[in-house]
Amino acid sequence: MDTIIEPFRIKSVEPIRLTTRPEREALIEEAHYNLFNLDGDDVMIDLLTDSGTAAMSAAQWGGLMQGDESYAGSSSYYRFEAAVRDLMPFEHIIPTHQGRAAERILMGIVADEDAIIPNNTHFDTTRANIEATGAEAVDLVIEEGHDPANMHPFKGNMDVDRLDALLQEKAHRIPLVMCTITNNSGGGQPVSLANLKAIKAVCEAHDVPLFLDACRFAENAYFIKMREEEYADWSVPDIVREMFSHADGMTMSAKKDALVNIGGWLALNDDAWAEAARNQLILTEGFPTYGGLAGRDLEAIAQGLKEIVREDYLAYRMASTRYLGQALTDLGVPVVRPIGGHAVYIDAKALLPHIPPLQYPGQALAVALYETGGIRGCEIGSVMFGRQPDGSEEPAAMELVRLAIPRRVYTQSHIDYVIECFEDIVERTRELPGYAITHEPEQLRHFTAHFAPIDA
Ligand SMILES: *Cc1c(COP(=O)(O)O)cnc(C)c1O
Question: d(Cα 319, Cα 222) in Å, to the nearest integer?
Fold first, then answer.
């Protein structure tokens, strides 16, 4: 059989409120054309993020009832620790309330004004937590990673020559090297095991530890199985173990590839760093056997880690993202390729060439998707990155709209509906207006800015 089915049945459902197009036009106007201002109830298909939006399994919900809420020494912590260590064999496993808390604790220990932290591409919270210490965050993804049309199978790879050159010159200022799997900011693109090994070899030569920002480790492992010949016959858990065997630590948002709605961890081998991390943890998160989480959350993570590495799940996951990306490509909608693991990124600049970058083609497409079908995506372009520290504006490198796919939440007919909305939009791209910003805060303006359509 060729059809890849959702490898689950639905036991519990959440109704979607169906809205009409005139209703949506009124709602988005009231929201000042900013999709972050919409009530979740007014969204039919929410593709804003894949973070914390997964559907948990019956076994995870069952696990919640078994959470041990002991303040110290909770048995749920030990089950969580064993589940993490089964895949990621680190000495110290420190739970946190989400990924950025792990980043803040780690950077608080290792970084200062003199420090430089390289990565393939820093995720925005990672970069912000590095910069908050005064340190510098450097992105070293390979050249192909910047080209939306390039079909390189591992566009998340790090440029090892540039890493080596940086370490040759400044290793004394580099407390650790990071690598993000998959590379979220670069379109959910994977990193190969060959690249991880090469990064580790360079790090070892300069005696600098390697940490993985591992939010989508299972999707990355599945890409390795599919695209790196040497590992085609390996099981996914074995590929995961091999990936982490080349690292000295990791930060994790369990809201991605641990199939839960909240959680994270920091794991590492260095005893002194771990002791400092636990001291920080007690200050702002909680006792080391619960971090920022309840015992029941730790149970849900432990079970989620068993489910996320199942090949039937990963085959379905990749197929469903690819299905949307391929359908859009067939419609002539330009998307970032190859299709990444967790999202489809649409090149709004190429789709709407009549809208100049500073009239925000990504925002124009995001608003049109909402009006047309009640679909919520996320602009990643000049709205998000265009404002300069001095208040002036520069166009971003790309004008993208991200459609992130929550894990196990939508069925194929939901996605077929999204595709149908695009069929409608591609017929009338020239009619879509650009937008002006009528109100904006000084920082992170995309969350709260107000917009108004520009009359053509
Ligand atoms: C989501 C994410 C983070 C931050 O995790 P939160 O749980 O949202 O705090 C860090 N890095 C990457 C690559 C992410 O996708």
Answer: 12
The best mutation among 121, 122, 123 to test binding of ligand 1, ranked by most ligand atoms within 8 Å of the C-beta, falls on: 123
148 in contact with ligand 1, CB cutoff 6 A? no
Distance from Cα 123 to the centre of ligand 1, integer Å: 7
**Rounded to whole angstroms, how far apart are CA atoms 308 and 361?**
35
| Residue 26: band (very low, low, confident or very high) from pLDDT cuts 50, 70, 90 | very high
What domains are there in the chain, each with its CATH number? 21-50+310-453 (3.90.1150.10), 58-308 (3.40.640.10)
* Ligand 1 site, residue 180, Cβ cutoff 6 A: yes
For residue 82, the one-letter residue type is: A
Question: pTM value?
Answer: 0.95
| Tens-digit pLDDT profile for residues 399-410 | 999 999 999 999
Residue 255 CB–ligand 1 contact under 6 Å: yes
Q: Ligand 1 atom closest to Cα of 100?
A: 9
C-alpha distance from residue 108 to each of 105, 124, 300, 423 (Å): 5, 17, 28, 49
Ligand 1: which of 129, 184, 285 to mutate, most ligand atoms within 8 Å of CB? 184
180-238: pLDDT as tens digits: 999 987 778 999 999 999 999 999 999 999 999 999 999 999 999 999 999 999 999 99
Cα-Cα-Cα-Cα dihedral sign, residues 448, 405, 266, 217: negative
Residue 116: beta bridge partners?
A: 136
